[in-house]
Amino acid sequence: MEVSRSINLSLGIIVIFLGGVVLRLAKPVLFPFFLAIFLSYILAPLLNLLKKFKVPKALSILLVLGVAFFIIYLLGTLFYTSGKSFASALPQYSQKVENFIASLETKLRMARLNWELVDWLNQFNLERVGKLVLASFGPFFAFISNLFLIFLFLVFILAENESFGAKIARALPQERSVIVLGVIQKINYQIQKYLAIKTLVSFITGVLATVVLVLFGLEFAIVFGFLTFLLNYIPNIGSFIATAFPVAMAVFQYDNLWPAFWILVILITIQMVMGNFVEPRLMGEGLGLSPLVVILALFFWGWLWGIPGMILAVPITAIIKIVCSNIPSLKFLAVLMSKGGEGEAG
């Protein structure tokens, strides 16, 4: 028995390692495919709505794809353009940063403190940071150039959606096919619910953050709002980063700290209300992930696919948890991945 467990454990580790290597090497194909799967779940309610109005299937798919393409391309282009302007404008804040460092150094000397922090800050070059940010937009938005591949996958996924159940029914005995189809439908419903609610909450959070920053007159409010939308998929860590960036910008843009303080208070309030009250009420119990699992997922998918992988890390992990919770032999994994005190997704 001990030998058998050791063999199974060793095989499991080897499979995970080989799976990671395959995912890393096949990123150019698998990333668009994963993104197409997520989009199919998000767009499924719209497709079902058109079906209720008896719109032909082919026309429904074309309409849904048209709406999705327009939104993704518009947001991507808007954010990319604003992001380039943001990166180009960073060197203009160099003088303000130098003044801040000089002021900090004076205060530390008056307090008879000798911190290495000042020496590190003196080496901080906003122009270099701007070039780094500008360069990072390239790989992050490379998926725009692969938009055709994403929508090609999406067409086949949406087209095969209805016929998949019939294929299962033909492939398996009647009693077994009913059980399998029931499990698949439950999994699909839970994944669709999770992704739809998470996207809706993230979108509302991003819009509210953008409106607040625009009212305060903060530069590049659209960039920070879009970052809030994307980073909201990452619990806790994403909210902290999404709040820190605009607050830091406000510190250097305004002559006093009060605007930055109020931006900090309002953004934290929005994040807390949406994350601790609105989302849990819409999502329901059992879909929360352990913070340790979230961190490990961020490191793993970040290593595999970079920044896009980190954004998709939590949704992918949540989907894995949903699948495990609906398969009896894997339910223990769903429990291990849950927050403390939660059971498996029901």
Which word captures the global form?
Answer: globular
Number of helices: 14
Query: What share of residues is helical?
Result: over 70%
Radius of gyration (Å) = 24 Å
Q: How many strands appear in the DSSP assignment?
A: 0
Order of helices and strands: HHHHHHHHHHHHHH
Q: What is the average of the pLDDT values?
A: 77
What does the main sheet amount to? none
**Uncertain ranges:** none
Report on this structure:
There is one protein chain. This protein is an all-alpha fold and 346 residues long. Among the domains are: 174-283, no CATH class; 285-346, no CATH class. The protein is 84% helix and 0% strand. It is built from 14 helices and no strands. Helix 2 packs across helix 3 (57-89), helix 8 (147-171) runs antiparallel to helix 9 (174-215) and helix 13 (291-325) packs antiparallel against helix 14 (331-337).
